Amino acid sequence: MPGSRMRLLFLAAPLLLLPLLLPGQELSPPETGGTYPSERTGEEERFIQRLAWEEAKYVYRYEITVEEQTSSGEYAEIHREFRTDNFIDLSLPPGSYRYRIGVYNLLNRPAGLSPWIPFRVLRAVQPELFSFSRETPEEIILRGANLVEGAEVRLRPAEGGGDMAPLAYLPGGESARLRFREALPPGRYRVYVKNPGGLEASLEITIAPPPVSPPAPPNFRSFYASAEYAPLIPLSGYLFEPLDGSFHPLGLSLRLGFIPLSQSWGDLGLELAPGWNMLKADAVEIHLGNFRLSGLYQRWFLDHTLSLVLRLGAGIILVSGTNRAEEDAASVFTWIAAAGGGLSLRWFLPVFHRKFFLEAGADYTHLFARDSPAACVKPFVGAGWIF
Question: I need a surface site. Which of 171, 235, 253, 284 has the fewest CB within 10 A?
């Protein structure tokens, strides 16, 4: 008898001393698309959630205790059950829970207790992505539906190179803001949004290169000056009749201007244009000094590289003439009121911050002489600088 008792104690000792350490297990969606089977009780939607743990040897049964977290943060027991299987299916509404497993050995005595294992039951919703927009170089906004907190978001470049995770994901149901640490390089991407519960949506997007802004117009709200070669060509009038069929024109002019008003439809300003011209023939030599104050209109073309300039103004012309055909070489000096306008093109060269320009055009002048009005035209070509 004593030997039989010793043998029985030797066989039962492992069962009495058996401790079971049961590892916790995170909830994972089943293989049916990332959501849990659900049922509705009255107005409450509940989800069938399976809790499973590693099966241990020499276990008679398991005791499962489930507690729900209340609004105050405390836990209250909602379910307790004994099972011989290593899993249990529970019908739970969305919320935060915890559970623990107690084991009973083959003698039906408590032999171990796991720590509390927290888990959450979430209603899985299908995200939808419709479109996107780029707010800043570091941010994009996704538009769709069911964009919720806790989603996993990543961008996958079409050219490869690994997924990119945003620095921040700020959802708002029908839109979500993605903020990255640096500006997104131009290219094609596919953005993936995976909601809690496993449902996922994706959208192909294209980040376009930043637009190339046209060059800004030169700052004409300052003075400019130009020098030109501007020969005078007579058209009509008694003043130019002494000239014979052939003569040698020569002329120089300056332009000093200021354009204080710049609008989308053009620029407006003032321009002062002093100049000198000489007409020399075999018998006559005429010198003309002119001063004109003009209103100016300028219109831009070709991304502020080329401009059309219109002028209209009035001034005086000082006339000095010498008739060398007479023996005493008689000379004349007088002044004549004049008015006219002009048309020119300015081309701003891509040097010196586009302060340097070339200009070509023509001015028409009408001279209000008492005896016989005269008219002339001055083609010109020159260069200028903006100060």
Answer: 235
- The tally of domains found in the chain comes to 3
What Rg do the C-alpha atoms of the chain give, in angstroms?
47
Rounded to a whole number, what is the largest CA-CA distance in the chain? 171
For the stretch 136-152, pLDDT in tens is: 888 999 999 999 888 89
Question: What digits encode the pLDDT tens for the residues 199-248?
Answer: 899 999 999 887 776 666 555 557 899 999 999 888 888 777 777 655 66
101, 153: one domain: no
Count the neighbouring beta carbons within 10 Å of the beta carbon of residue 169: 18
Provide φ and ψ at 371, rounded to 5°. Answer: -80, -45
Same domain, 168 and 245: no
What DSSP string describes 62-131? EEEEEEEE-TTS-EEEEEEEEESSSEEEEEE-SEEEEEEEEEEETTS-EEEEPPPEEEEE------EEEE
CATH number for 197: 2.60.40.10
Q: Which domain holds residue 86?
A: 13-33+45-121
Tell me if 213 is assigned to some domain: no
Per-residue pLDDT tens digits for 327-351: 555 677 888 999 999 999 999 898 8
For residues 117 and 111, what is the distance between their CA atoms, to the nearest angstrom? 19
C-alpha 210/C-alpha 203 separation (Å) is 21
